[in-house]
Write a structure and sequence with these properties.
heterodimer; A: alpha+beta; Immunoglobulin-like; A middle domain of Talin 1; 2 domains; five-stranded mixed β-sheet; B: nine-stranded antiparallel β-sheet; 9 strands; 23% helix
């Protein structure tokens, strides 16, 4: 179930020739970055050096004051944010790792998080071999990516509403064969944008709660409650098929909650970090629920959800891929390869319009899928750090 | 079952904790015949004297002395050891089911046998008359022998009684004790997200063996299981390494497999009033036989560490509400600074988020309720998907199971950490008070 998009406060702005070191887990501990310290007190913002070679620079910011503080690295105009470390509690330290092109910058701290800050000082990244390439106009690309993604979410939810109506009608009419056919295909629209749907507090549990996630006495509604009634073969011995009244109330709730979701996604906007973390979140959904067969306990249609989560992650990745190609082409190449390898494994399980049921997969097949999810997950989880500061 | 004949054999080397007494219930000097049969599998004639293999003496002369290696915690006492005892580094936990056909007398005898063996092992001695490497040449050794040469290593052995000891799932009171069952001793409720494996849950009896040496803990469970053959059999066991909490202010807070310090606010032995209020069952709480005891909860918590490991540091720290390095609350300070749950950062959001694990588990958010946590990390190989079968074997002691239930219900519903964990095993046991020298653990229940 829920993977809420956190870090919503991350700013998707101010990417001025900056990227964070990325790639897979470091296996070469040789330090290539310049390590600097920042002492953010009530009145000072003392950086241990006012210049460093262009390239990777780590600022370790320590809050020696008694208020929550922030550290900013600003562009030459003293306004645009190149990098920041926010929400540093008194006594705590946090790193800001940036890759700077040669040029002039400013450093500043903002104890108390209000006002103009303190200790604003010039900082110079000097010419070096490791200098990052300066980019032109990322902001416009980011805007485009965000807008496109909002359209995608809206379109998927539109289709979810249509599909849910048809599914509800079939189930209500007692046409269980038709309902079973519509079940997985309709849910794919939900799963493609699952991290968005989950960000709306109580809608997610109302629509997508699994039986195991119920608390004692809690009323079970949503897709999986109906799933159990449609595929009762593996239910407990004393499971009773739902009455017509129960079917009616479950479908009414499903349709109503889906309509509410539809309302809520209208006019949504997204930041870059919400997109990159959304892709990561969708793959985490695959790793924790789908590849283990826990999501579709009764219907075993987990691979439909799997494919839909991957679809959603791919869309999110495609939206930021052009930006990534400038920031970190190696990471982009790695993601291209791993996404393709995962899709190859999924394609091998296609049957007619759908997929092999989870309980018909061999252990080796499940293991291959799980391994490839891990292979994709490692580089994918570098995406936020590569694109967002 | 015929009452076993006791051999009046006096140990040549008296353990410091074992006193001679003529008016205490038998057996006081050794294991019952049945217990010995469990050990030896054959009649051991009452010849020869002496307790074999006193590892304390052995270790003292051969092993460099370190506090963790030479620590000795007496088995007999007001409370059972292994609760407020400074948490040792290693765990072997075992749950048993009593065998079919076992009578009340058999059960008592088993507890007596276990008590004697546990007291000997806690004192660093082999069990049985001859120990591991002597005795009749044509009989199996009484002690399994793998702890020879190892120091006491702070071994504690703690016994508990599960709800099913009092009444089976079919409603049978096998030992005539159900009328004395505490009302609270019922299976824990289903918590949201529970994915429990019955084969890793519950049990009639439990033994928690903790030690600073894994082999010493394993030796204890292995020999106690052997003693029980025919009377009780293992239902499930759990090995643990790397204690995840400290129960003494002298101990640093350890890290769980997420790499975080958890349990900073744990109950410490140096806070006697808190221990009295939160850990020990009082006479007023009832039942009287459990006074001085406690309730033990175990939860096998699987961590999806592969997913966790690729989670960004911001999320990791947000989930716990602490820094990963020092363990300080995100509201600032150092590890033991009091968290400020209201201190806000950007957008007026609290620095310690509403669903942070540390916030939800903190006594301030739970009407002051605390648990004495004593959990261990585990890695039991890997699953079929190539993921480490790893996590936290959560253990807590509390005055009432409701303390755990209230906190866990809150966590199960709201904790951000739930995304990375699954509760896959669960058990509840009543832990009787400590045994007096010469008596046996749980004796008041059968008095």
């Amino acid at each position: 179930m829920p993977r809420v998009i956190r870090s919503a406060s991350l700013l998707g702005v101010g990417l001025l020739g900056v990227s964070v070191l990325s790639g897979c887990v470091a296996n070469n501990p040789t330090s290539t970055h310049t390590a600097l310290t920042v002492d953010s007190s009530q009145t000072e913002c003392a950086v241990s050096a006012n210049e460093a070679p262009a390239g990777s620079i780590r600022f370790t910011v320590t809050n020696s004051g008694d208020q929550v503080t922030e550290f900013y690295l600003l562009a030459e105009d003293g306004l645009r944010i190149v990098g920041e470390a926010e929400n540093i509690g008194p006594g705590l330290s946090r790193d800001l790792v940036v890759q700077l092109a040669a040029g002039n910058y400013f450093t500043a701290c903002k104890p108390g998080m209000t006002g103009d800050g303190v200790g604003k000082a010039e900082f110079t990244a000097t010419e070096s071999d490791a200098a990052a390439t300066v980019d032109v106009d990322l902001a416009a690309q980011i805007d485009t990516a965000n807008t496109n993604y909002a359209s995608y979410v809206s379109d998927q939810i539109d289709q979810l509403v249509t599909g849910t109506d048809a599914f509800a009608a079939a189930y209500l009419a007692g046409d269980d064969d038709a309902a079973r056919t519509l079940y997985a295909a309709t849910r794919m629209h939900w799963e493609r944008v699952e991290t968005i749907a989950e960000s709306f507090g109580d809608l997610d549990p109302k629509l997508d709660l699994r039986e195991a996630d119920l608390e004692e006495g809690q009323n079970w509604t949503g897709w999986h409650a109906i799933e159990k009634d449609l595929w009762p073969a593996e239910a407990e011995a004393d499971f009773e098929a739902y009455s017509a009244e129960k079917r009616a109330s479950l479908t009414a709730q499903l349709v109503t909650d889906t309509a509410t979701l539809h309302e809520k996604v209208q006019g949504l906007t997204f930041t870059l970090s919400q997109q990159t973390n959304g892709a990561i979140g969708l793959l985490d959904e695959v790793a924790s629920g789908k590849v283990t067969g826990e999501e579709e306990r009764w219907s075993h249609t987990d691979l439909w959800d799997f494919q839909a989560n991957v679809d959603g992650a791919k869309v999110l990745y495609a939206g930021v891929r052009d930006i990534l190609l400038q920031e970190d082409p190696d990471l982009a190449a790695s993601l291209d390869t791993e996404f393709a390898a995962l899709q190859t494994l999924l394609d091998a399980q296609r049957v007619d319009d759908g997929f092999t049921y989870y309980n018909d997969l061999t252990t080796a097949e499940i293991r291959d899928l799980a391994n490839q999810v891990n292979a994709l997950g490692e580089p994918l989880n570098q995406l936020t750090a590569a694109l967002v500061l | 079952m015929k009452r076993a004949v006791k051999r009046a054999v006096k140990p040549a080397v008296k353990p410091a904790t074992r006193a001679e007494s003529v008016d205490t219930p038998t057996p006081t000097h050794g294991l019952s015949r049945r217990g010995l049969l469990g050990l030896a599998g054959a009649s051991v004639a009452g010849i020869g004297l002496g307790v074999a293999g006193d590892r304390v003496a052995l270790a003292a002369s051969t092993t460099p002395e370190t506090a963790s290696a030479t620590a000795v915690y007496p088995f007999y006492g007001t409370h059972q050891a292994g609760i407020v005892t400074p948490t040792q580094d290693r765990l072997h936990f075992a749950a048993f089911d009593v065998a079919a056909g076992t009578t009340r007398a058999d059960l008592i005898e088993l507890l007596q046998d276990w008590t004697i063996a546990a007291a000997a092992m806690s004192a660093g001695q082999d069990i049985g008359e001859y120990g591991a490497v002597s005795g009749p040449y044509d009989a199996p050794p009484e002690d399994t022998g793998e702890a020879q040469g190892l120091p006491t290593s702070g071994l504690t052995i703690t016994f508990g009684f599960g709800p099913t000891l009092f009444e089976t799932a079919d409603g049978v009171d096998r030992f005539g004790i159900n009328s004395r069952r505490p009302p609270e001793l019922t299976p824990l409720p289903h918590f949201p997200g529970d994915d429990l494996d019955p084969d890793r849950s519950d049990g009639d009896l439990c033994i928690q063996a903790c030690s600073n040496d894994p082999q010493v803990a394993v030796h204890a469970i292995r020999n106690l299981s052997r003693i029980a053959f025919g009377r009780a059999a293992l239902r499930w066991t759990q090995l643990g390494f790397g204690r995840t909490s400290s129960t003494s202010t002298a101990q640093a807070t350890a890290r769980n497999l997420f790499g975080f310090k958890d349990g900073t606010a744990n109950i410490k032995a140096e806070e006697p009033q808190v221990v009295t209020d939160q850990v020990w069952v009082s006479s007023a709480d009832g039942p009287e036989w459990l006074a001085g005891g406690s309730y033990l909860v175990t939860r096998r918590i699987r961590m999806t560490i592969e997913t966790w490991d690729r989670t960004i540091l911001r999320e990791q720290e947000t989930v716990f509400g602490r820094t990963k390095g020092s363990g300080a609350p995100l509201s600032g300070g150092t590890e033991f600074s009091e968290p400020d749950f209201t201190l806000a950062g950007r957008d007026d959001q609290p620095l310690i988020s509403a669903d942070a694990h540390m916030r939800l588990a903190h006594p301030d958010q739970n009407k002051g309720t605390q648990l004495l946590r004593r959990g261990y990390n585990f890695v039991d190989g890997n699953d079929a998907l190539g993921r480490l079968d790893a996590g936290l074997f959560f253990i807590s002691f509390q005055r009432s199971p409701a303390q755990f239930t209230d906190i866990q219900l809150n966590l199960a519903k709201n904790d951000a950490l739930n995304e990375y964990i699954r509760h896959v095993g669960s058990a509840l046991f009543a832990v009787p008070a400590g045994a007096a020298t010469g008596s046996y653990v749980g004796a008041p229940l059968f008095a």
